[in-house]
Write a structure and sequence with these properties.
single chain; 272 residues; alpha+beta; 3-methyladenine DNA Glycosylase II, Chain A, domain 3; TATA-Binding Protein; 10 helices; 16% strand; binds iron/sulfur cluster; 4Fe-4S; metal ion binding; DUF3786 domain-containing protein; iron-sulfur
Length: 272
Amino acid sequence: MSEIKNPLEIYGALAKTNCGECGVPSCMAFAAAVLQGQKKLVACPYLDPAAMARLSQNIVQRRSLEDDHQQAISQLQQQVAGLDFSLRAPCLGARLVDGNLAINSLGKDFIITPAGEMVSECHLNHWVYVPLLHYVIVCQGKEPLGEWVPYSTLPGASEWSQYFSHRCEEPLRQLADAHSDLVFEMLHLFGAKPATLSGGADHSLVILPLPKVPFLINYWEPEEGFPSKLNILLDRTAGENINAQSVNLLARGIIEMFRQLILRHSRDGKLF
Ligand code: SF4
C-alpha cells in the first residue's frame, strides 16, 4: 500500500459511528487528527487491529506550519553562516557589534549572530525572523529612491499580490478606521515619518521595517458616501533588496503587532 496522505483513506477503515470515544466528535475529524499527528490510531477502540497495523505503516503525517517555519529559518541560518558580516553590514545599512549584525527595524535593534541566531528585546516570530535573515542574504544595498510602486510590481509578487491586499492592506485599513488615533500614534512611535501626501491621501507616512526597505502607508479617511482607502507602497528598489514573500511577511508581522497592541491599549480592549 502506498503512503497515506488523505484522511479519507483512514476514514474508510473506521466504524463511522461518530461515537466520540476517541475524544473528537466524528470519525472524519479523528482521521484528520491522526494524519496531523494530533491523535493516535489506538485512540479508537473500534479499529480492527489488522487495519491499525496496515494504516500505521503507511501514514505520512502532515508537517505543521510551525515545522515549515522552523525549516525555513534553519535553511536561511545555514546561508547566513557563510557570510562575512564586515562586508555585509554597510550593504545592509546595519551596524557591526561585537562580530554580530545589528539591524534596525521600526526603531528596534535585532541582533543577528554569525550562526544566524537572532536576539532582540522584541518578540521574535517567523514574521520577523524569516525576512530579516533573507534580507541579510540577498540585499544588494540599493539605496531607496523615494519612488513608490505598488507591491504587485515587485518581482515574483504575482502569486502573493492578492494575499498582500487581503491580509495586509485591508486589515490595516480596518484598524485605522476603528482606531485611527491609536494606529497613527503607534506608527509614530515606531519611527514613521510624514511623507509628501500621495494621491490626495489624508495621511502618508514612511516606516522602515528594514534599513533599505521603506514602506509608504497612504490612508484616505472615510467621507460621506465613500469608504476609507489604504495602500502600502514600496520603493522602486525594494525588489533588489528583498523578495516579495519577505515583504509580505514583514507587513503581516507589523499588522499582527498592531492588533496585539490595540487589544492591550484600546479603551474597551476590543479590535472592532
Ligand atoms: S472512537 Fe472510533 S468510531 Fe468512535 S468516533 Fe472515534 S473514530 Fe469514530
